[in-house]
Design a protein that fits this description.
The protein is mainly β. The protein contains three helices and 29 strands. It has one domain.
Length: about 575
């Protein structure tokens, strides 16, 4: 029976585990009774060493659509390697009227932050804080280079909110008890655009740079973020083109998927998360508690290690990223992370199996009926399933390493409609489930197994009713989750980490007969965040709000002895 050992870099496929593995810093608790933006998200865990801070930019104002440049200079007193690298950013918007805006930060064209902003109101100037663990991107920070912030914003007599922001990097030195982890040796951007992101209008649009890579790649990963924008902002409400007009919905069906290719051949995929921004559907739903990851998107990491031998063959290689069914449009970014064989200048290998087809084949079932008075009722259901295996090997200085990735992705979007002269109902139940198992077999039969599961449930109900006097009400309820479980079996104890993040909100908007907003009722929101790993770390926070004011904060529920 083969013995089990941990690959020194396979853990890169499980970034959650690293984020739970060190001390939790002091938690800044949201203020009960406040209308300021509030989340239950945890801060990035930190080592116990004292960090060196590098300010990227301070008090930048964003009142136009020009990217703001800055210069990154490494801290001389913290040359690396580092036990942890953390990005901290703080944003605010002056009170008034303003849209939600997309924010990106890039260093050397590599995207290090991607999110959206919190909308203000006439009485509230929101502030918010975001963090991202960038330890895996350590080689990016060894040399001085240019960076930029891409946060386009329109300010005029109508849209008066001015956005401001500051950001810094914290570098934590290693210690005997908290050593520097193995990180990527090379980090490469997929695009040289501001913020590291580009627009993809249709399925045919592909972000496809060509790289000349080192000849000793033994592990490769692509971090992917796909943000829906414009006509695709609410892609999860979309229906087939033939019924889009009569159902007052966007077209292109309710299925989207990010696809990765190498030299034009399918190499992996990334499910698209249904983020809802703070201006989405009903802005009052997200004040003061925004949707899941709205302010701080998490990248999905695609494991390209079966292609390591191919990428090391000394030839240029094109890595492609596209969004299936993109329908004007998606903004996407990608970062290529390479792990090198330090004992060899050149490795060889090949892909031995690849059953990932050229594209998904979603099925749509329409069951709609039109009554004699013109009322449309019925359902539109969209489903997709992907099951594939990709295998490859690489001959390294420490022997041959075989990698096999087995992945299953299931998607469903079920919508129910009522469309009459006095009522419009659109009820959506959507779910994406992903199971991925990576097996590596090394010299002497050593085996490492990593498994990750993701689930993205979304329930969204919209009911607009016109009363006899011409007044109207729109009731919206949303329940959105991000659930993941990641594990690795290797030398020593098995390792497991779980995350559950849920935001639920509801509101009824009231309109007079002329269509003017007159008020709201039954407005409330909540977020519950729970994370735990087998090394003893645990974090739990639940917050709730009513009528735009934070009403409660509960810490430590489900964690023995509280957060730690």
């Amino acid at each position: 029976m083969p013995h089990v050992s941990r690959s020194p870099w396979l853990k890169a496929a499980l970034p959650l585990l690293a984020s739970l593995s060190l001390a939790m810093p002091g938690l800044a608790q949201p203020t009960v009774g406040s209308s300021n933006t509030a989340t239950a998200d945890p801060p990035v865990s930190r080592p116990h060493t004292t960090p060196c801070a590098v300010q990227l930019f301070s008090n930048f104002q964003f009142a136009d659509f020009s990217p703001k440049p800055f210069t990154y200079t490494p801290a001389a007193s913290c040359p690396g390697p580092w036990a942890k690298v953390v990005l901290e950013a703080d944003f605010s918007c002056t009170a008034g009227r303003q849209f939600d805006r997309t924010a990106q930060i890039a260093i050397g064209h590599v995207n290090v932050y991607f999110g959206t902003t919190s909308e203000p109101s006439s009485a509230v100037s929101p502030t918010w804080h975001v963090e991202r663990d960038l330890t895996d991107y350590s080689p990016l920070f060894r040399a001085a280079q240019a960076g930029d912030v891409n946060l386009g914003n329109l300010v005029n007599s109508t849209f008066t909110g001015i956005l401001s922001g500051s950001a810094r990097l914290l570098f934590y030195p290693p210690s005997h008890s908290e050593p520097a982890p193995r990180t990527a040796d090379v980090v490469l951007p997929m695009a040289s655009a501001p913020g590291g992101a580009v627009l993809l209008q249709t399925t045919a649009d592909v972000l496809a740079p060509t790289f000349s890579l080192p000849a000793n790649v033994e592990g490769a990963f692509l971090d992917v973020i796909t943000q829906s924008q414009s006509s695709d902002e609410f892609w999860f409400t979309c229906v087939p083109d033939d019924v889009a007009n009569e159902l007052f919905s966007c077209g292109g069906t309710a299925f989207r998927e990010a696809e990765v290719t190498i030299d034009g051949q399918p190499a992996g995929l990334a499910p698209v998360y249904p983020w809802i921004f703070t201006g989405g559907i009903d802005p009052l739903l997200w004040r003061p508690i925004p949707g899941v990851q709205t302010l701080n998107f998490l990248p999905y990491r695609v494991d390209l290690t079966p292609f390591a031998g191919v990428l090391s063959n000394g030839q240029p290689h094109q890595v492609g990223l596209s969004v299936f069914n993109s329908n004007h449009y998606f903004q996407v970014t990608g970062s290529l992370l390479l792990y090198l064989d330090h004992g060899a200048s050149h490795v060889t290998g090949a892909v031995t199996q690849n059953t990932l087809g050229s594209g998904p084949h979603p099925s749509v079932q329409e069951n709609l009926a039109t009554a004699t008075d013109g009322t449309i009722t019925g359902t539109v259901n969209t489903k997709a399933q992907r099951d594939f295996a990709i295998s490859g090997y690489v001959n390294t200085s420490h022997g041959r390493v075989d990698t096999t990735i087995l992945q299953q992705v299931g998607f469903s979007n079920d919508q129910r409609f009522v469309n009459s002269a006095t009522q419009f109902v659109q009820n959506i139940t959507q779910k994406t489930d992903l199971l991925s198992v990576t097996t590596q077999t090394g010299q002497h039969g050593a085996v490492t197994i990593a498994q990750k599961t993701f689930s993205y449930p979304l329930t969204l109900d919209i009911n607009f009713t016109v009363n006899a006097d011409g007044s109207a009400a729109q009731t919206t309820t949303s329940d959105q989750k991000f659930q993941s479980q990641q594990a690795q079996v290797g030398h020593g104890f098995p390792f497991l980490g779980v995350v559950s993040n849920e935001v639920a909100s509801s509101d009824t908007l009231l309109f007079d007969a002329s269509g003017n907003l007159t008020g709201f009722q039954n407005r409330n929101g909540s977020q519950s965040y729970f994370a735990q790993s087998t090394n003893g770390d645990c974090y739990s926070r639940s917050i709730a709000s009513a009528s735009g004011v934070l009403t409660s904060v509960t810490d430590g529920k489900g964690c023995f002895g509280g957060n730690h």
